[in-house]
């Protein structure tokens, strides 16, 4: 059934291409070539309506068959999913983040930054605090 629909799709593609090329557009198209007898048979007002209808029908058949074949293809070819879909479904182990930099909380800023300086840079630099004096042991 798949190959029958595929064959019909290919024939429809060829017919659609032929019908589109035979239409007389702004430049006359292929329908105007060949002398006066072609205008009587292919050209003219009635042929424009016929060619337009054939274009719409061939285009609709092409889209319908393409959709049907796209749905049938994975089952017909024996695949349920592509390699990419299978790789995406596989669970991956979480990677550990490097701990080369210690994370320390920034000290709150008590003074206003000077004009023209970036407050984020100032708050990120640690300020030196004096160490408490050692207590003398009780005697």
Counted beta strands = 0
Give the biggest beta sheet: none
Globally, the shape reads elongated
Question: Taking Cα atoms only, what radius of gyration do you get, to the nearest Å?
Answer: 39 Å
Assign a percent range to the helix content: 40-55%
Terminus-to-terminus distance: 104 Å
Q: Report the total helices.
A: 5
Mean pLDDT over the full residue set:
73
SSE sequence, one letter per element: HHHHH
Tell me the β content: under 5%
Q: What is the SS-derived class?
A: mainly alpha
Return residue spans where pLDDT drops below 50 for at least 5 consecutive residues. Answer: none
Task: Give structural notes.
- The chain is an all-alpha fold.
- Helices cover 52% and strands 0% of the residues.
- It has helices spanning 2-22, 36-41, 45-76, 83-89, 119-124.
- The longest helix is centred in the middle third of the chain and has 32 residues, at 45-76.
- It is elongated and about 115 Å long.
Descriptive labels:
mainly alpha
Please outline the helices and strands.
Elements: H1 2-22, H2 36-41, H3 45-76, H4 83-89, H5 119-124
Helix pairs in contact: 1-3
């Amino acid at each position: 059934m798949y190959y029958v629909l595929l064959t019909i799709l290919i024939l429809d593609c060829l017919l659609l291409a032929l019908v589109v090329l035979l239409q007389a557009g702004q430049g006359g198209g292929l329908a105007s070539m060949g002398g006066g007898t072609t205008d009587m048979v292919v050209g003219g007002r009635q042929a424009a309506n016929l060619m337009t209808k054939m274009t719409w029908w061939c285009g609709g058949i092409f889209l319908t068959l393409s959709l049907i074949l796209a749905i049938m293809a994975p089952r017909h070819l024996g695949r349920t999913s592509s390699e990419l879909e299978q790789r995406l479904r596989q669970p991956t182990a979480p990677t550990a983040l490097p701990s080369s930099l210690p994370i320390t909380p920034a000290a709150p800023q008590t003074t206003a930054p000077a004009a023209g300086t970036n407050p984020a840079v100032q708050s990120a630099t640690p300020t030196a605090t004096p160490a408490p004096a050692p207590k003398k042991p009780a005697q």
